[in-house]
Write a structure and sequence with these properties.
- The chain is of the alpha+beta class.
- The chain has helices at about 1-10, 50-55, 85-90, 100-110, 125, 130-140, 145, 155-170; strands at about 15, 20-30, 35-40, 75, 95.
- It has a single domain, classed as Nucleotidyltransferase, domain 5.
- The strands form 2 sheets. It has a 3-stranded antiparallel sheet with strand order 1-2-3. Strands 4-5 form a two-stranded parallel sheet.
- The chain is globular, with a radius of gyration of 18 Å.
- The N and C termini lie far apart (about 50 Å).
């Protein structure tokens, strides 16, 4: 029974493509390019449905008190632009810095006065979104993570957590 359960978990994080088995890493990073959370999904999985899972994994331990789980603002690309994601951020009182997709804007304009308000985002805060891309580049400096040598999703996720810990430790040392 244990073996079957492990096989299901492994199969859940690997997806099929023309190139073979693939997986996709969804992550969040702080403004200093340090990873905060990792979520591993099959390669064919969409980005927008994983938004809540990535935010749910964020836990930052401060010197005093409970871990912090709610950031002040979230900057994401257009793949994460959806009504449900924006509503989720609004309910948690988190500022959404996500540009609107062109087809969503056209649909809203087509509905006229029945459409919702135009989406606004802070362009200065959106410039900080490249920290996620730089964090991915730092993670992929490890050749095993860049070329995905690990055969199981569990070992690959463990490598991601190890690399994230190394990045955090290096950021704490004085330059």
């Amino acid at each position: 029974m244990r073996l079957r359960r492990k096989i299901r978990l492994t199969a859940a994080k690997l997806g099929r493509s023309r190139g073979g088995l693939t997986s996709k890493v969804h992550l969040s990073a702080d403004w200093r390019c340090r990873p905060l959370s990792f979520v591993l999904t099959p390669g064919q999985a969409g980005d927008s449905p994983q938004f809540r899972a990535v935010l749910a994994c964020i836990k930052i331990r401060l010197p005093v008190g409970r871990p912090r789980t709610r950031p002040d603002a979230v900057a994401a690309d257009k793949a994460y632009s959806s009504r449900s994601n924006r509503g989720y951020l609004r309910r948690r009182r988190i500022k959404a810095v996500i540009p609107e997709k062109a087809d969503q804007a056209a649909n809203r304009k087509k509905r006229g006065s029945c459409g919702s308000r135009p989406v606004s985002h802070d362009p200065d805060l959106y410039k900080q979104r490249n920290t996620v891309e730089r964090c991915i580049n730092r993670i992929k400096e490890w050749r095993g993570l860049a070329f995905r040598f690990d055969k199981t999703p569990e070992s690959y996720l463990a490598g991601l957590h190890l690399r994230g810990a190394v990045l955090w430790i290096r950021s704490l040392q004085p330059v």
